[in-house]
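Forum > Structural Biology > Help requests

Title: Can anyone predict the 3D structure of ER lumen protein-retaining receptor?

Hi all, first post here. I have the sequence for ER lumen protein-retaining receptor but no way to get a structure on my laptop. I'd be grateful if someone could post the structure tokens.
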Amino acid sequence: MNIFRLTGDLSHLAAIIILLLKIWKTRSCAGISGKSQVLFALVFTTRYLDLLTSFISLYNTTMKIIYIGCAYATVYLICAKFKATYDGNHDTFRVEFLVVPVGGLAFLVNHDFSPLEILWTFSIYLESVAILPQLFMISKTGEAETITTHYLFFLGLYRALYLINWIWRFYFEGFFDMIAIVAGVVQTILYCDFFYLYVTKVLKGKKLSLPA
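Reply #1:
Sure, ran it for you. Structure tokens for ER lumen protein-retaining receptor below:
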């Protein structure tokens, strides 16, 4: 495992922990898109079904279990425990416009036409756009809490580091996965505007807002 994948995994884990702590400490999920979190739970569920069929390493298995557990814990906090604080009026992105096309694409473009491979491909495609409901929600409310922006920053950083990881693996291992790379590029592009606002506003102590 190279340093870029490791730091990418740690950035991903940091994003998840930041979000969980934010919800738990404030006893509120205000400003958090429940739809994005449900999509991420679906991403991890469909991607890590290989936990039932194969073992790669203790690190790999542990991280997969943590991702799945944290994803469902987040969904539980938003949809059940702190449901009264959930801002459903602004979380209105039509997720079917993401899930249906992504599902169709996974059937058409994959490495192998088998159930596990199609579901893995579906998870890769879906992850690249799963953050859209959250970004859409911020654009509707006009601003985001600082802690929420830190969550989004580490989530975007994770994907950017994974892109570097793919480049590293191509040059030093000869490994190339077009599906993962293209999806990663799409996801990183979606974060570009956010990264700019994060650096120019949040890091200077200002609130982040997206154009409505």
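Residues 3-201 form one domain. The chain has a mean pLDDT of 91.
Shout if anything looks off.
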